[in-house]
TrEMBL record:
GO cellular component: extracellular space
Chemokine interleukin-8-like domain location: 36-86
GO annotation, biological process: immune response
One Pfam family cited in the UniProt record for this chain: IL8
Name assigned to this protein: Chemokine interleukin-8-like domain-containing protein
Alphabetically ordered keywords of this record: Cytokine
Organism, scientific name: Neogobius melanostomus (round goby)
InterPro entries: Chemokine_IL8-like_dom, Interleukin_8-like_sf
UniProt GO MF annotations: chemokine activity
């Protein structure tokens, strides 16, 4: 009788451990296939492709704070503190403002 209880207890623990391992494996498997539509890493390499636009991504884990440049070659996640990133944002913003002004037929001579 005692032997049966020991065996039942052992088998019960083994089943519990197996169920926990299966649960952890399934969760890890799901995590591997989650689609993250944000930058989880950033680059410090200067973007050389023509830039079509940009947007700022807020930090919301797993997403990191980044400037996402839309280029002719695709999107690039860039570190927001890089001097060249700030310069490209200023240039792009200036061009956008000029286009809006020109669209309104306002004559500006420099």
């Amino acid at each position: 009788m005692l032997f049966q209880r020991v065996i039942q207890s052992f088998v019960g623990r083994q089943l519990l451990v197996t169920a926990q391992l299966v649960s952890v494996h399934q969760q890890n498997h799901l995590d591997e296939h989650k689609i993250t539509k944000c930058c989880t890493e950033v680059s410090i390499t200067n973007v050389t492709a023509p830039i079509l636009g940009y947007r700022i991504q807020k930090k919301r884990p797993p997403c990191v704070l980044a400037v996402i440049f839309e280029t002719t070659e695709g999107e690039v996640c860039s570190h927001w503190r890089q001097t060249w990133v700030i310069g490209k944002i200023r240039d792009k913003t200036f061009i956008i403002v000029l286009k809006k002004i020109n669209h309104r037929d306002i004559d500006i001579t420099l």
